[in-house]
Amino acid sequence: MEHRVRRILSVAALLSMWMLTTAAAALAGEEEFTQAISAIATASSYSEKDAAATAIAASANPRAETVLGAMLKGELYTRNSDSRVVTVTDAADGFAVLDATTGEDLGTASTSDVSRVTVNNALRTSLRGLLATLKLHHTDPKQRVAAIREVGESGDLEMRQTLTDLLATEQDSDVRGAIDTAVATLNLDSTEPAERLAAIERVGGVVNGLTRTKMSALAANESVDEETRTAARRALIDIERRVAVYDVVQTAFFGLSLGSILVLAAIGLSVTFGIMGVINMAHGELMMLGAYTTYVVQQLMPNALGASLFVAMPAAFLVAGLVGVAIERGIVRRLYGRPLETLLATFGVSLVLQQAVRTIFSPLNRSVVTPAWLSGSIELTPGLDITLNRLYILLFSLLVFGALLLVLKRTRLGLEMRAVTQNRAMAAAMGIRTDRVDMLTFGLGAGIAGLAGVALSQVTNVGPNLGQAYIVDSFMVVVFGGVGNLWGTLVSGLSLGVASKLIEPAAGAVMAKIFVLVFLIVFIQKRPRGLFPQKGRAAEA
Amino acid sequence: MLTKRWPDHDRGGYVLLGVLAVLAVVVPVANLAIPDGSPLHLSTFMVTLLGKYLCYALLALALDLVWGYVGILSLGHGAFFALGGYAMGMYLMRQIGARGVYGNADLPDFMVFLNWDTLPWYWHGFDTFWFALAMVVLVPGLLAFVFGWLAFRSRVAGVYLSIITQALTYALMLAFFRNEMGFGGNNGLTDFKELLGFDLQSDKTRVALFLTSTAALALGYLACRYVVTSRLGRVVAAIRDAEDRVRFVGFRTHHFKVWVFTLSAVLCGIAGALYVPQVGIINPNEFQPLNSIELVVWVAVGGRGTLYGAALGAAVVNYAKSTFTALLPEVWLFVLGTLFVLVTIALPRGLVGIAARFKRSQHA
To answer: Which residues in chain A have Cβ-Cβ distances shorter than 8 Å to B345?
Structure first.
């Protein structure tokens, strides 16, 4: 142990020096690296290999990490013909071989052409240490922070010195903070009461599983002095309080995110059902079309996945909108004033669309790629992560909502739509072409369904049943919010989302859904016109 | 049209009853008396298939009663059918006794599989046939009564009602999919052995079930006919056409609606109970909203508001479904979807309407 620590320290010292040296020294490093690699080929004992590995790490060559990693995994070999050191990966016929020093591709080799550089457990341990040290000096600050955190959680008290030494050269304030936290986390295991106490103060507010376990262990440990135990207990209470708060925030966020998906799904329906009074059972399938449009767009531009969503949005709006216009012209138009028949006919359309997609794209789910800028999550504080795609969908649904509101309140089309809704005959008498307005309104609702499909393709499977899964929910949202009221749809979608996420931990996802459905069935009895019923003349239409 | 209780010109009804009477004689003879090799022999598979269609016809009849005569478009009638089916399935499950895979006489197989020790309270009593029969009627009836009472009293009507009935069957589907509910989860109830001691696989039992279905459909038709031609039936038709006026005249319209809705649900329950022993399985898929909507199409295809038209529609659409799913499974949904559209736009009175138009043009 002693020996290992000293060696790691010396490597660290060398590395720090290297970071300050010039190109000439780097050239020397290159030479050392090459020498150390060939030393591996000739090494006859594990201690010689250990020395060679240390030299590789100390050379600070950019390939050092790859080589040591390969050595640890048993993927470092020497070639029997010229004892050149190579890294290998499994290929179809034997091994794919790369030169260890340069990374040059040496083609493939059969298993008998090469022999493995063997490692034993002691060597593995020291390799791990070397790799960790290398990572601590990575050029990317984020990688450094990750490595430092890992060291902090390793419970290896010997590493404290290594970490503190890093402070001497480290400039980045995030990394410096991470070092402090890591040292303090390690110090929780210290036998020095003063160090331990300081550590508790330092990491008391850091919410993660490790500090929590350590704190509760300290608080329960009889052999530790009373002061430390009290501090640990206090820190534990603090951590638990924070966790509780984060849980609430997390649940609320999940709820809002589910709610925003519901709003997206329902908002187009709110236009066709709410404003026109037409039950469009094919609404879910229009969303499905939007999702499939996203898939097709991604297939067409495989090299620009990041931008594909921005192409998919207008495309989905158009595709779904045009199909919507066709449905209105062909079917809905003939059935105005007969809502139940409209319901049946559009349901027929939904079956045809589903089967069409099944025939064209196969019944299997298609995979839509999540672009890099949409994946991952941001960490608000340790212990509280927000997934990016859900955040963006929340913003997107608010954006769509705002845009729709603008169209309805600020454009001529919106004005005409509202006029036709309130009094069709009067609107026609004033010169509004009501049939054209009907067509465009239906197309608008359908287009928004297409946009919802783009968003859905990022969170659920894109398959022929995508629409069916949302149709009942979206009708519930519209009815709950009050037909013909966009704000009602927004409020009801978000609140239903939050409500089901709140029930979920206690009752499970399925029961939560059942509760929500039963609640809605009962709610409709009490307020048949929804949360925010329309008032005035429009209500009688 | 509704003036006489047994109007002479209910020709469709007479045809339906006549067809049922013929089936009740021909099918047993063709299956049991005519030997296997003869071209006139009817296979047991066909007997069961016909029996299934009869159950569907009864279901369609029940929906037509509420949709055609009260104007309530229920998108959740499949739920009552499935509940009746589950009540019968629970009885059949208890009849398996110790012959299950685990050989446990006290618990159905799936409960043994879930490591349950005792029978849940709501399974008690289902080992007696009469209790199960009572439940077949009571469970759907009670649910329909409570649901209808709540909905009609608060004057939930039209599209809103359709959507909450859909929510009802959707919620029930989700609930029955859960293993914890104690109804077999995904797999539902199956592997039935015998009914009242008769082997469910034997030809004679199948024929008996077929005859029972025939009788149920005939009686169901007569009951519905009786209801729609009674005084209550006239009030109900008035409610369909102008509920507000009927209310102003002094009728409590929701009482009438609840009554008919409950009756319809009971008929659905009976149809489900006859369906389950014939097909040998009941699972939560029967609660799917799609099934209930398909049911609406049967009625629309046959001709809404005629009762016998509903039975005709159920038979025709299901025959088409069996044929298409066997020959061209890909095409069936296209056909069904187009049928929805065509019937609503071009054939508002269904097949019965075509027949009537044809007859009128002959008279002219």
So the answer is: 331, 334-335, 345
